[in-house]
Design a protein that fits this description.
Elements lengths: L5 E8 L2 E6 H8 L10 H10 L3 E4 L3 E5 L9 H8 L3 H10 L5 H16 L5 E8 L6 E7 L4 E7 L7 H15 L6 E7 L4 H7 L5 E5 L13
Parallel strand pairs: 1-4, 7-8, 8-9
Antiparallel strand pairs: 1-2, 3-4, 5-6, 6-7
């Protein structure tokens, strides 16, 4: 029996490979009216026509964005980039967010009720534009201190610390005007690698999220 291969879009941010389930990513990011009717093969063909490259392994098809080829070499670090079927299944069961953008948009509307931090935060911007890349979520507390959020759904969340510190540094130099800048990494799972790295950065907080589904009875009409 032929094994169905999982399709992923591979992009790059700051030299770090970002892996996305192809269908969800394509429908959320590509302005394609017929995306809901397209198969993974249709999507990969269209992206290939736009200059993307295709790389296949025994269980995956990677559709790689131009410029991301250098960070998508499975032979050099397959453990960091590869997402197994078991991990994909577990992720689907434990998370309602198909893309980091869904998590970001949810938090932008429910930041204080979702995180229950000691400070009340107001959202300054979503995908806040900076000279070193977009900040997933930027917030500010009542004292004027800034909070930079880096959101991660997939494996390799330990790499988020470098991105977070880059954004924090930019905010300190160009935005904060002497106020404190704090960083928050929010991921489905915080790895030991990230915990060790963040232990040397006192202004960074690590948070794991866990989603719950509530069911209520609805009366018939």
């Amino acid at each position: 029996m032929t094994k169905i291969k999982k399709h992923y879009a591979v992009t790059s941010e700051g030299g770090i490979a970002q892996l996305h389930p192809l269908k969800e990513w394509f429908r959320a990011t590509q302005n394609e009216p017929n995306a809901s009717q397209m198969t993974s093969h249709d999507m990969r063909r269209q992206l290939k026509r736009n200059g993307w490259t295709i790389k296949e392994t025994h269980d995956q098809v990677l559709v790689i964005k131009p410029g991301a080829e250098a960070v998508s070499d499975l032979s050099s670090d397959e453990d960091e980039l590869s997402v197994s079927e078991e991990q994909s299944s577990a992720s689907a069961e434990s998370s309602l967010f198909a893309l980091e953008s869904h998590l970001r948009d949810y938090l932008s509307k429910n930041l204080n009720s979702a995180l229950k931090l000691n400070q009340h935060l107001s959202v300054v911007g979503v995908e806040y534009s900076t000279a070193v890349g977009p900040i997933d979520l930027l917030a500010k507390d009542g004292a004027g201190d800034y909070y930079v959020f880096e959101l991660k759904l997939e494996r390799g969340a330990d790499a988020a610390l470098g991105q977070l510190l880059r954004y924090m540094g930019w905010c300190t130099k160009h935005l904060s005007q002497g106020r404190k800048v704090y960083g928050v990494v929010l991921a489905a799972e915080i790895s030991d690698k990230l915990r060790y790295a963040a232990s040397l950065v006192p202004d960074v907080t690590l948070l794991e999220y866990e989603l719950q589904i509530q069911v209520r009875s609805v009366q018939k009409i």
